[in-house]
């Protein structure tokens, strides 16, 4: 289900939209990315029309599971856009597409959520990355190994 604003309902008043969208409804296909949606997009939006422009503002919240780019540990990355806003022209050369007197806000929500995701997520600013653990080398014996003694047998006398 998409988030649609019916323009007939906006004349001289505001329209309040609240609800949730699943990642499938939002068409968030991230493939093999380090970040994957973990739950639904919660939205609380207010839409109004002013001077042939659709103005929408409100709050967007969604959690993602991520894999740290340094230490590879999983963590939760919340997207919280408390003052999300967009102005969409309804007329003119840059006018947005309208279907049956409604405007679908889903593509703009999806774009702003994707822009809010980091390319290289970190579990924290103090993350040191993978911990290098050096293996202890085996203790060396004082006696030469048998492999070297075979080389002594192979030596040919100098003439």
Protein described:
A hairpin with a 2-residue loop joins strand 4 and strand 5. The chain has helices at residues 106-116, 146-154; strands at 4-6, 15-21, 35-37, 41-50, 53-67, 74-89, 102-104. It is 13% helix and 36% strand. The chain is rod-shaped and about 110 Å long. The chain has 159 residues and is mostly beta strands. It starts with a strand and ends in a 5-residue tail after the last helix. The model has no long low-confidence stretch (mean pLDDT 85). Strands 2, 3, 4, 5 and 6 form a five-stranded antiparallel beta sheet that branches. Strands 1-7 form a two-stranded antiparallel sheet.
Distance, first to last CA: 93 Å
| Fraction of residues in β-strands | 35-45%
Spans with pLDDT under 50 lasting ≥5 residues?
Answer: none
Overall strand count: 7
Question: What is the overall shape?
Answer: rod-shaped
Describe the main β-sheet briefly: 5 strands, antiparallel
Chain-averaged pLDDT:
85
Taking all Cα atoms into account, the compactness measure Rg is: 30 Å
Class of secondary structure makeup = mainly beta
Q: What share of the residues lie within helices?
A: 10-25%
Q: How would you spell out the order of helices and strands? A: EEEEEEEHH
Secondary structure tally, helices: 2
